[in-house]
Design goal:
- It is a single chain.
- The chain is an all-alpha fold and 88 residues long.
- It has a domain of 30 residues.
- It is built from four helices and no strands.
- The protein is elongated, with a radius of gyration of 29 Å.
Length: 88
């Protein structure tokens, strides 16, 4: 059964525009952006991670490694190793 197309105005006669109130563009945009963080992965990366949790675990692990090695330069050792080395 096909619906008849309304000419001109798309609203049904029982609805009045003034009854709907004032529309606000982007009313929920900020809260939406805060709660939704969509990241698109390359197909080859997506194949390596079967679930969202697997991606998050891998990234958290990488963050921990990066924080642990922060401040180290090429050729230097972590402070803990220097204290236990026989040279000092």
């Amino acid at each position: 059964m096909k619906k008849a197309k309304l000419e001109g105005d798309d609203m049904r006669p029982e609805y009045k525009r003034e009854d709907l109130g004032v529309g606000v563009r982007g009313k929920y945009y900020d809260s939406y952006v805060e709660s939704h963080n969509l990241v698109l992965l390359r197909p080859e990366v997506a194949e390596a991670f079967p679930t969202e949790e697997a991606v998050n675990d891998a990234l958290l692990s990488l963050i921990r490694i990066a924080k642990a090695s922060a401040g180290l330069t090429i050729g230097s050792a972590p402070t803990q190793n220097r204290a236990s080395s026989p040279e000092q």
